[in-house]
Amino acid sequence: MKEVALETIDRLCREATASPRRRAHLNLHEDLEEDVQRLLIAMQPGTYVRPPRHPEPYKKETLIILQGRCACFTFHNDGSINKSVILDPAKGTYLCEIPDQQWHGVTCLSDNTVVLEFKRGPYTPLTPENFATWAPEENSNTCSQYMAHLIRTVEP
Fold it and tell me: pTM higher than 0.85 for the full model?
């Protein structure tokens, strides 16, 4: 039986704070070939992942918030926002499910945000064509502006 205690969450948050990418993760699956990929992701404001999509027709992605706040987005092919939701346990919004083959992204809204992510396995690395060309590349000098734009759409 696996157990995730507060000390594990706290450690992941410290690792995310120390990381240049402002996030850290812990795989709960033992093998990348497992049928269900499960991981904890700790993130701090300022972390950025260029919006991806999973090309497989069966890779819905589910995020469950454990602490903190984040905004989840799905996008149209042109980069315009399709839908958005703020995951915030204090407001009673705990889960979002991203449809398969859908452009999506997450923006961290508070310190020490932790989500549980799961999707169908096996793990398949994303190729460059599965990252949105209409969004800045990671480490680009326009990432902050892009994230600020996304945040303004959910917290005007």
Answer: yes
